[in-house]
TrEMBL record, chain A:
InterPro entries: CcO_II, CcO_II-like_C, CcO_II_C, Copper_CuA, Cupredoxin, Cyt_c_oxidase_su2, Cyt_c_oxidase_su2_TM_dom, Cyt_c_oxidase_su2_TM_sf
One Gene Ontology term, aspect cellular component: mitochondrial inner membrane
Start and end residues of each Cytochrome oxidase subunit II transmembrane region profile domain: 6-101
Subcellular location: Membrane; Mitochondrion inner membrane
Gene coding for it: cox2
Organism per entry: Galdieria partita
Record protein name field: Cytochrome c oxidase subunit 2
PANTHER family per the UniProt record, alphabetical: CYTOCHROME C OXIDASE SUBUNIT 2, CYTOCHROME C OXIDASE, SUBUNIT II
Swiss-Prot/TrEMBL GO biological process terms: ATP synthesis coupled electron transport
UniProtKB/TrEMBL annotation, chain B:
Source organism per UniProt: Galdieria partita
Gene Ontology cellular component annotations, sorted alphabetically: mitochondrial inner membrane
Matching PANTHER family: CYTOCHROME C OXIDASE ASSEMBLY PROTEIN COX20, MITOCHONDRIAL, CYTOCHROME C OXIDASE PROTEIN 20
Pfam families: Cox20
Family that this chain belongs to: Belongs to the COX20 family.
GO biological process: mitochondrial respiratory chain complex IV assembly
InterPro entries named in the record: Cox20 (IPR022533)
Protein name, entry field: Cytochrome c oxidase assembly protein COX20, mitochondrial
Annotated segments matching region Disordered: 97-117
Transmembrane spans: 27-44, 56-75
Main location: mitochondrion
Length: 239, 117
């Protein structure tokens, strides 16, 4: 099965979700999209009907309606009910996203102009830290994605609660990976926290999402989700 | 990711595909069918095209809304059951693994028992 975990040209839809948060976001989008399309169809139809029926050439006599309690109640209560129907799953997802679970892995992400650096401080005496630069077009191999590949990927274990701590050293960046449902601004002088739980193996692509200067478009993010055994091997190789 | 060598006419990954949304097909089928049937019945009674159209449109919205709510409820229940069964399987795997690591080595006892018998 081929998964859509990277941007495609002229892409309009979501990438395939890899975390429960992103699955929730996609499901909520489906729910709200249905309500939106239903309301749109109803409004367009009523508008067309009114434009046609009350055209001055067909209705020369002006009627003055002074009472309309029922219709006023209907057009007040109906949008209220629709908004409640939208709000319930939306708030449920919002609070579910903020649920805190004791993490198994903590990774620090630091934004620079114009690259990312990752620190795994839980392992070894000095921890593991490295920079992640975009691979230029001339260095790409066959099958690589242009302006998305990096020299050092971020490796994370799947089916593990992960805590990401984000900050920046210069200007505001934003660490965003659509498949994981993560987008978090990295603000200099501030430490942001995001929780992630990757459900399947794969390579997930993202890009900086806050304008940060000349090469803002050239600092992609690549996260490689591997099994716990593979993650341990990778950690051992890095220490 | 799709193969970059496919032609643009075959590569439609960029399009938004509503048919992939769970319950979309069922909702559209029930909504359109219900609206058409109601509209046809209204036209049969009144022979008024505008009233027919009103009933058909609002009937479509009503039937599709009901179908959507019911189908999404079933979809959520199914997903919840899937998640619970997955969690149970994970717990069972962990329990079995824990029991295997704590199991004593009874090979010497088994050998002596076999010798006796």
């Amino acid at each position: 099965m081929i998964r859509n975990d990277a941007p495609v040209r002229w892409g309009l839809g979501f990438q395939d979700p890899a975390t429960p948060v992103m699955e929730g976001i996609v499901n909520l989008h489906h729910e709200i999209m249905y309500v939106m399309i239903g309301v749109l169809c109803m409004v367009i139809y009523i508008l067309m009907r009114i434009i046609y029926n009350y055209d001055y050439r067909r209705n020369r006599e002006v009627r003055k309606e002074k009472r309309g309690a029922l219709i006023e109640a209907i057009w007040t209560l109906t949008p209220t009910v629709i908004l409640i129907i939208i709000a319930v799953p939306s708030y449920a997802l919002l609070y579910a996203m903020e649920e805190e679970v004791s993490p198994g892995v903590t990774v620090k992400i630091i934004g620079h102009q114009w690259y990312w650096s990752y620190e795994y401080s839980d392992y070894g005496e000095e921890g593991i830290s490295y920079d992640s630069y975009m691979i230029g077009e001339e260095e790409l191999e066959e099958g690589d994605l242009r302006m998305l590949e990096v020299d050092n990927r971020m490796v994370l274990p799947i089916k593990t609660h992960i805590r990401l701590l984000l900050t920046s050293t210069d200007v505001i960046h934003s660490w965003a990976v659509p498949s994981l449902g993560v987008k978090c601004d990295t603000v200099p002088g501030r430490l942001s926290q995001v929780g992630v739980y990757i459900k399947r193996e794969g390579v997930y692509y993202g890009q900086c999402s806050e304008l940060c200067g000349m090469n803002h478009a050239y600092m992609p993010i690549v996260v490689e989700g591997v099994k716990v055994e593979g993650y341990k091997e990778w950690i051992k190789s890095k220490i | 990711m799709t193969n970059s060598s496919t032609s643009s006419s075959e590569n439609t990954d960029f399009l938004y595909k509503p048919q992939k949304i769970p319950c979309f097909r069922q909702t559209m089928l029930y909504g359109l069918t219900g609206g058409l049937v109601l509209g046809a019945l209204r036209f049969y009674r009144t022979r008024n095209p505008w009233k027919t159209t009103d009933v058909a449109v609002f009937g479509t919205l009503l039937f599709s809304s009901v179908s959507w709510v019911l189908c999404r409820y079933e979809y959520r229940s199914y997903r919840e059951q899937l998640r619970k069964s997955f969690d149970l399987q994970q717990e069972k795997l962990l329990f079995d693994k824990h029991n295997e690591t704590e199991k004593p080595n009874n090979s010497a006892i088994e050998d002596s028992y076999e010798k006796k018998t």
